[in-house]
Amino acid sequence: MLSWVSSSSNIFLKYISDAFDEKREELALATADPSSDLYVREPGLRYEVLEDRDEYLAENIFWVPQEARWSHLQANAKQPEIGRLIDDAMVAIERENSSLKGVLPKDYSRPSLDKQRLGELMDLIGTIGLGNEISRTSDVLGRVYEYFLGRFASAEGKGGGEFYTPRSVVGLLVEMIEPYKGRVYDPCCGSGGMFVMSERFVKAHGGRREDIAIYGQESNPTTWRLCKMNLAIRGINGDLGPQHADSFHNDLHKDLKADFVLANPPFNVSDWGGDRLRDDVRWNYGVPSVGNANFAWVQHMVHHLSPHGIAAFVLANGSLSANTGGEGEIRRSIVEADLVDCIIAMPPQLFYQTQIPVSLWFLARDKSNSGFRDRRGEALFIDARKMGHLVDRIHRDLSDEDSNRITRAYHAWRGESDAGDYEDLPGFCKSATLEEIASHSYILSPGRYVGSEVLEGDREPFEEKMARLTASLEEQFLESARLEEEIRESLDRVGYGQ
Q1: What is the pLDDT of residue 247?
Q2: Alpha-carbon distance 374 to 356, whole Å?
């Protein structure tokens, strides 16, 4: 994965250098314009203004020392010492920008790295304008960065899923819970996709970036750096802790009560060290299995919810029905506590790290839904297994139409006025009471509740339909007989007839 991080880091380096150069050009024009408040008569003093670190930091632009500017690095991209120059640039940037301390990789000079390919990569990235206002406004950089992460996740296979959740899945989670305002938390934040999409959602709906506060944690050191860079290139302030850390054994946000929890925890982890946490305060609904961390993640997230908070996360489908290791009892306790708001069965092949189908869970501390319909004592089940389309030989994705259908059903169920009226649709969605769930032994598989889709019959009279189908069948019999005769004649011609 290091090569992927190297590429992402180069994109980051190009971005902050472009943004710096844009601001520097702006200052150059202003200091040379007699009508400007920043006009400086003497050229020597004008240069001092252009190199004034505070002028950049005041506008949340990273200060880029001369040795780290992209123009200098690209000019030396074909030199054998380019690896060392990039390492020095990373050190200089961290030294001048405390928020990036310990984040940027500094191993470009290692002998195993092909310096020719590194130079070619720099030339390629150098053709992308990332710092200009148009680029930032349309989030061109963000899309480029997501493209790299997505491609890297696909190439890495199982390991790639540790830091990348498909954009359509993240978007669906965010559109469901609508994190307009409050504290957003992801205890296994990967490359930060949940945060980016939340911030994008707020802006798209006329909100302010300052209305949400972001908290995250990530145990993988490389992925933690990816997340820090992913947020930095978008100007998103997030508290990811001072370093990477395991959320179970070193909870960096121990006192946090979040309004929204968004997560895609690793599936079915068996070596999470649960034997050392048997009496943990987070296990309000039962002690999780030491051989499977799924319900440890669930309870960790519930523990961090505020009194009116809602959690939206991805789990392997086995969690919907498993009874081993005490999982059935924990699931029962969660249902009886009326935490289950909605369960969505997803189509297979959505994730890079696994081909098994997954489900989306939505747990709410308070289902009275102030201002909307009171859904206490009920849960919504949605079966989306047949949705999605293949984007390549082994991966599927949800279309906007798929996501919109799911979110409309959920928001209508909640009683939101602009979502229309809710109704159960066989084969797709069902609002079930806690008593109904109990009758199914607290199994949460949506297929048990939504039933089969009702297919509309056509209006063709039975007699006419049978006559038409019989005539068609007769034609097929005749064609079959004709083909059989041709085959026999061909066999006769080559001496194999009977």
Answers
A1: 97
A2: 34
334, 372: one domain: yes
Q: What are phi and psi of 253, to 5 degrees?
A: -125, 50
Strands 378-383 and 340-345: what pairing?
parallel
The CA distance from 280 to 286, in Å, is 10
Q: Which domain holds residue 474?
A: 461-498
Looking at the chain, the whole-number percentage of residues with pLDDT higher than 90 is 52
Q: What is the reported pLDDT for 458?
A: 54
In angstroms, the CA 335 to CA 344 distance is 15
Using alpha carbons, list the distances in angstroms from residue 449 to 161, 342, 379, 412, 442.
30, 12, 11, 18, 12
Question: Are 307 and 331 in a shared domain?
Answer: yes
Instruction: Return the pLDDT at 162.
Output: 47
CB 144 within 8 A of CB 230: no
Closest CA to 266 of 154, 166, 159, 173: 159
Same domain, 485 and 431: no
Tokens of 419: 């979502």
For position 252, what pLDDT does the model report?
Answer: 97
Antiparallel, parallel or unpaired: β 389-390 and 358-364: unpaired
Task: List, for residues 145-170, the tens digit of each pLDDT value.
Answer: 555 555 555 555 444 444 467 889 99
pLDDT digits (tens, 9 = 90+) for 332-370: 999 999 999 999 999 988 876 667 779 999 999 999 976
Contacts for 447 with CB less than 8 Å, ≥ 6 apart: 345, 383, 385
The answer to whether residue 144 is domain-embedded is no
Same domain flag for 205 and 111? no
Rounded Cα–Cα distance for residues 92 and 64 (Å): 8
334 and 297, same structural domain? yes
Q: Are 240 and 217 in contact (CB under 8 A)?
A: yes
End residue of a domain, out of 107, 137, 167: 137
Low-confidence spans in the chain with pLDDT less than 70: 1-6, 129-164, 352-354, 370, 453-465, 467-468, 471-472, 475, 494, 496-498
Shared domain check, 306 and 257: yes
pLDDT for 492:
74
